[in-house]
Design brief:
Blueprint: E1 2-7, E2 13-19, H1 21-24, H2 30-44, H3 103-119, E3 123-126, H4 136-145, E4 151-155, H5 160-166, E5 172-176, H6 182-187, E6 191-194, H7 195-205
């Protein structure tokens, strides 16, 4: 099994732990990462673009001129698509862009993302992240100590002090283990996990 070093907030080594190869040291499959990022971004799209069809445009109830004898083509309404101010033919309507992705693909994609960070030596494991008070400066100092200019920090449970301390830092995001996803893992150059978060991730992905 692969082994990771565990540090404290002062960057002192406090131990090591084995991690599951199937999760943190698996083969990185770019096509799965691509599919999962597309899946996430598609689900985020609002899909609210809409235009009015000829039945929704106000007016046009009266036939503009008689059927025959004018020399013009027959017309039933001035709100048809070929008239200025008329309805739009085949325009966009509210829709969902989401598509289905198998749960096995989702798990495999997350394992690939975690493995990419581990194999690229962009994974840092801390024994714990606990702050005495809400302090952006204190949180930034921890990241500077590890030379992390941008990072996704994953904790095992809600911690308002940590979450609020990181909120104003550029290129830094704090997530709970259950909310970790492929898009955010790939978006940030470094991944920071607490020891408890590693346990939670392995428990979720090994089911």
């Amino acid at each position: 099994m692969a082994t990771v070093t565990i540090f404290d907030l002062d960057k002192k080594q406090v131990g090591e732990r084995e991690v599951a190869d199937a999760i943190f040291n698996a083969e990185v499959k770019p096509h799965l990462l691509h599919d999962m990022v597309r899946y996430q971004l598609a689900a985020r799209r609002q899909g609210t673009a809409a235009v009015k069809t000829r039945s929704q445009v106000a007016g046009g109830g009266k036939k503009p001129y008689r059927q025959k004898g004018t020399g013009n083509a027959r017309q039933g309404t001035v709100r048809a698509p070929h008239f200025v101010g008329g309805g739009v033919a085949f325009g966009p309507q509210p829709r969902s862009y989401a598509f289905k992705l198998n749960s096995k693909v989702k798990k495999a994609a997350l394992c690939s993302a975690l493995s990419a960070r581990f194999q690229g030596e962009k994974l840092t494991v801390l024994n714990d992240i606990s702050l005495e008070k809400i302090s952006t400066k204190a949180f930034a100092e921890v990241l500077q100590r590890f030379a992390l200019e941008g990072a996704l920090v994953v904790i095992d449970k809600s911690d308002s002090k940590v979450e609020l301390s990181a909120r104003n830092l550029q290129n830094v995001k704090v997530l709970r283990a259950e909310g970790m996803n492929v898009y955010d893992v790939l978006k940030y150059p470094n991944l920071v996990l607490t020891d408890a978060a590693v346990t939670a991730i392995e428990g979720a992905l090994e089911r």
